[in-house]
Amino acid sequence: MLDSLDPWPPELLARLLHPGGAVAAALAMAPPGARALDLGTGWPSLAAALVSCGLDVTIADPVLLRLRFERLMSAAPVTDAVHLALTSQLPWPDDSFDRVFVDTAEVHRARGDLRFVIGEVARVLAPEGVAVVAQDAGGPSSRGRLLRLLREVGLPHATVLVARPGRADWSRVLDESRWGQHLTSEASQASAPSVRGKRLLKAAIAAAGGVRWLPADRFVVAYGPEAAPCDPLAEILAEPAGSRELIRLSDARVAVLGQESFVKLPLSRHQQDALIQEAQNTRRARSTGFAPHVIRSVHVHDWHGLPYVRYPLIRERHARPGEAEQTIAQILRGLAPGRDAPLGATAFWERLTGARGARDADEAGARALRARVLDTMADVSVPAGPTHGDLHADNLLLVDGGAAILVDWNRFEPFNPLVLDAGYAAIEHDRRSHGGSLAQALVRFRDRELTGPLAELASSTMGDLDSAQAATLILLDRVVSYSQPRRRYKPWTMPAMARAVAALAD
Ligand SMILES: Nc1ncnc2c1ncn2[C@@H]1O[C@H](COP(=O)(O)OP(=O)(O)OP(=O)(O)O)[C@@H](O)[C@H]1O
Ligand SMILES: [Mg+2]
Questions:
Q1: How many domains does the chain have?
Q2: pLDDT tens for residues 276-291?
Q3: How far, CA to CA in Å, does 222 sit from each of 55, 99, 240?
Q4: How distant, in Å, are the alpha carbons of 93, 242, 384, 385, 474 from that of 345?
Q5: Which ligand sits nearest to residue 410's alpha carbon?
Q6: 213: which DSSP letter?
Q7: Residues whose beta carbon lies within 6 Å of some atom of ligand 1
Q8: Distance between CA atoms of 416 and 344, rounded to whole angstroms?
């Protein structure tokens, strides 16, 4: 897709692949038909998210390659795309847009004057409109100055929101040592000693595994004088002033933490269906042996045709690794022992045999592995029953008083080989506690080197499989279980998967 003779600059690619772009769309939802302007944010996912919510979108960008990228990437590119400088007046009359999205760091990069650009944003924004201004962590302008500028141009009502990148989110995109190296090289290029000092400190924190302590990105949501907060999140976002934390999940959906609720909003057509499915699965899980560990309620709401899901907020803490291992093993032991069934009768098999399974396997280089399993294993007997589908410590929340709640039921299936849950949980636990790769943990599982309660449970749920076959099934289950087009939304998961396929094929 990218030209090999004319490579795109790394800063540009980093921006294009940034996982948080679409989150801005959720901060000021507008009804379908509302007019939105993406003023040079450089996130292709933002326009796609706005379009999926039915908005009439215009992209204006000083970087021509980004407009080109949007055309290449999007299934339905925005037709209203304008190449312009951020240094002159915007080519639209007053009050042209209901939503305007801009990023102070990008204004700076485009050599625009922030005061002038914010003035233009206010001019083209309708009185009932909302502007979302992103501020990169460590970016060039302070929050105080931005709020002052917004007041000066007649947008005095603003809420500051902090996107929580979260260690898990970042480490999926970029491992911590690389992030540390990047900051160190940035620091060596900084001319001012004070800037250099700050960056070196950040690099040291990152190198010590402290990515989560680095400042998070901020969004300032500024309301026009006649804006009525009316979107599904208004209630949550209007909660006490000051910085509020939200949590982003991926480019395709976003979750917001309220005082009482945990709301997931879809930001792509595909995620609209996936979230409805997740809600249904959560309810179905409640009629299985998982019941005591399923979140108490889930509601699907509708906002102008856009479904979104609301769970009660769990005031929880994540389990420590050893604790998670024990707790997950206890939950799995609490399930009925399962019913012996041929692999061919399970939900996993159905996914594997389908066209989607074939495509996913090809993409991960697992065509031969899949073919071998399909040819030889349909009749192998395994204990089967309900599976969560993504049993790792991040999906386990411990509530005060000791209750353990599992979240994230989008991969739940009522009748599956039980070893998929136990084996994957054992592998994930090993990976997280030893810092190894998926490939290494799978190989250790295959070679029966894993110990502990989850590994024992996995052994006891293998039925007639040997450990090499079980490892292969666990891997293929990951390969064909993603509920989203991975290459587009999670491109970084693919290399790890392909390496694991190669390791097991040996
Ligand atoms: N009801 C809740 N209350 C509080 N926190 C929650 C709740 N549900 C989920 N979380 C937190 O949010 C995180 C992400 O939610 P969830 O696991 O449902 O999404 P996800 O599918 O893992 O997202 P992705 O895989 O795209 O990162 C969880 O790991 C958990 O820490
Ligand atoms: Mg999860």
A1: 4
A2: 999 999 999 999 999 9
A3: 19, 10, 15
A4: 63, 54, 9, 11, 16
A5: 1
A6: G
A7: 247, 249-250, 255, 262, 295, 311, 313-314, 316, 394-395, 407-408
A8: 10
Buried/exposed 84-118: b ≥16 CB within 10 Å, e otherwise: eebeeebebeeebbbbbbbbbbbbbbbebebeebb
Q: For residue 440, give its domain range.
A: 316-505
Cα–Cα distance for residue pair 56/37, rounded to 1 Å: 9
In this structure, how many other beta carbons lie within 10 angstroms of the beta carbon of residue 233?
Answer: 23
Q: How far apart are CA 71 and CA 483, in angstroms?
A: 24
Tens-place pLDDT, residues 55-111: 999 999 999 888 887 777 777 788 899 999 999 999 999 999 999 999 998 899 899
Label residue 279 exposed, middle or buried (CB < 10 Å: 0-12, 13-18, 19+): buried
Examine the domain organization and report whether 451 and 370 are in the same domain: yes
pTM: 0.81
Q: Is residue 2 part of a domain?
A: no
Length of the chain: 506
Residue 1 maps to a domain? no
- Looking at 142-292, list the stretches that DSSP marks H as alpha helix, in order from N- to C-terminal side: 143-152, 167-173, 176-189, 193-207, 234-237, 269-285
